[in-house]
């Protein structure tokens, strides 16, 4: 519990104030401010299908809307997945909302989706970190135990090959018993974790994105494309990893010296590797200053340096790199604009959109759901940028608020976005 409290306090020191524009939840916010001004709450925006925004309806939100479910609780973290969202309270409880077709909500009943956050069952210890993949979820306890649930078709839960393909309730990863897990990142079909000693482990589908190279784990047999239990990334032995991120087809690790290592399912121009032909083992990313934070999207990557600079590269469809164009970038390029005046402290990547926190303000760019993408009867399902429209933005744009708000954390899902905020 002490570790969790410290983590929340560290997050609260990372930003300043910003402004919010949304009619939904305004009365809730006013009540909250009058009684508990330091409570941390959630705002969400974007596609509302399957209740992933947790607002009690299926409506999409073009601007941030406050989640009223936690009026009596303070939140510590949020994690947006494919079409579901996880919330972590400051008391160490986990809640989930949205699509539940693979059991990714971790609830005991068979509901296909929920419109409002429901407490995740089966977690009997305080939780300090949550993560959401495309169809699977995870939680780390205060003493470093790892629990996972949801889709297990490619072994992404790490609980063994002879287990169910769908696991609807949190299940402890028994092979990690006695190992203190510090953090975890979930991709589409794979997972990557870091121990308290800085060792990197990965499992799930797609051998390249796991970083194990093409070598077989048993002499004489070719390696499977899936790992069903956590496996040490041998190439990173002796490297103390402090941060990890997982995307659709690739993963990135950052070590204690600020070096970034990348590995992917297949080298391609879309991911920004030019003529590289083997990135199935971790390869150091050159031309990057000392790195602190990292995020992986569908086909793009973002790194925050120790000086608060933001670098991006990879596919630039819909302008998700934030560099003012839609050109593919093969090497890290700095995102300037508002970040020349104020450093970046947090970044998150969705499928084709990106969000960052700078000076306590939230900035978004990339795919906004332009031109009615995925529309039904002419109604666009966009809005994940929170700018009030479905337009693509090629440069960072500030998300506006109508109250003094400090952003503590931000998380991008497939086509929705969530944030943890605090009234100043």
UniProtKB/TrEMBL annotation:
Domain of life (superkingdom): Eukaryota
Domain (RCC1-like) ranges: 44-417
Keyword Repeat: yes
RCC repeat locations: 40-91, 92-143, 144-197, 198-257, 258-307, 308-360, 360-423
InterPro entries named in the record: RCC1-like_dom, RCC1/BLIP-II, Reg_chr_condens, Ub_ligase/GEF_domain
Record keywords, A-Z: Repeat
Protein name (record): RCC1-like domain-containing protein
Organism: Protea cynaroides
